[in-house]
Amino acid sequence: xxxxxxxxxxxxxxxxxRFYEKHGLIPATHRRENGYRDYPETMVSRIRTIAVSKSLGxxxxxIRRFLPxxxxxxxxxxDVISNLEQKLGDVDQKMRDLLEIRKxxxxxxxYMKDPERSGC
Length: 120
Prior knowledge:
By secondary structure, the chain is mostly helical. The chain has helices at residues 3-10, 14-22, 42-55, 60-66, 77-113. The protein has a single domain (3-113), classed as Orthogonal Bundle (Multidrug-efflux Transporter Regulator, Chain: A, Domain 2). It contains 5 helices and no strands. It starts with a helix and ends in a 7-residue tail after the last helix. The model has no long low-confidence stretch (mean pLDDT 89).
């Protein structure tokens, strides 16, 4: 299938697909005689996995670690669960960090509004 059709099916832009190929997230595909890339159907699932993973906050290097080298291989469920649990822990830590920053900002605002009553 041509890159435009793959982009349409997956909802991922053609430039992103080319980027994924350039950076090894999807294997380089063969080209037709006219120079067009010709992607196998298996790329649909792989591209969707990359797109969903990015939307969940995974970096491209993190995604690369859990994608199988062979795009026809299934992603190991245990690997996905492990990566999701780790990302959830990262998100929880970021939320704690942001709550601490929010608390400090609130204290600073209170102080700036009335330094004598804030107790800072």
